[in-house]
Amino acid sequence: MSTVAVVLAATLAAALAGLRFRFVRVVVNGTSMLPTLRPGDRVLVRRKAARSLERGDLVVFARPREEQRSWMIKRVLAAPGDRVPRAEVPVLWGYQEPLVPPGRFVVVGDNPEDSYDSRQFGYLKAESLLGVVVGSSPRGSKRRNRRWPLGD
């Protein structure tokens, strides 16, 4: 094998390793995000994008108040600097600030009847975030070549 081929192979391996560190695929398990996401759907998550999150983004984060880590997917209702959505999330009436504080988010499921979210646990801490969902593919689709944008 020539030196050029070895260098090219090493560069490709490093690039793939970098992508694997930056992106992760998560399988949806549960109905809290119906109708947007269904059990078995796969989502592509860009790790740790807390600074660029906006209202409406889907995020994956560690379930609050649990010793053993499990992941949840929810929609950002309010990001730092947004108005505190007390009407939608009454548990936030206990906080005096008019704006969501730095390092905190308000997240909700699209299916409120079956969602454990900020309506129960209040603010989500930014350090709990795995990342932001950048695409999804429905259950049963081909793994590699079929990705659909989330839309909304």
Query: Largest sheet, if any?
Result: 7 strands, antiparallel
Radius of gyration: 18 Å
Structure class:
alpha+beta
Strand coverage percent: 25-35%
**Order of strands across the main sheet:** 1-2-7-3-4-5-6
| Average residue pLDDT | 84
- Tell me the total number of β-strands: 7
Could you describe the 3D structure shown?
This protein is of the alpha+beta class and 152 residues long. It is built from 2 helices and 7 strands. It has helices spanning 3-22, 118-121; strands spanning 23-27, 42-47, 58-62, 71-78, 104-108, 124-125, 129-137. It has a 7-stranded antiparallel beta sheet with strand order 1-2-7-3-4-5-6. A hairpin with an 8-residue loop joins β3 (58-62) and β4.
Structural descriptors:
seven-stranded antiparallel beta sheet; single chain; about 150 residues; about 25% strand; alpha+beta
How is the secondary structure organized here?
Elements: H1 3-22, E1 23-27, E2 42-47, E3 58-62, E4 71-78, E5 104-108, H2 118-121, E6 124-125, E7 129-137
Antiparallel strand pairs: 1-2, 2-7, 3-4, 3-7, 4-5, 5-6
Short description:
The chain has about 150 residues and is an alpha+beta fold. It has helices at about 5-20, 120, and strands at about 25, 40-45, 60, 70-80, 105-110, 125, 130-135.
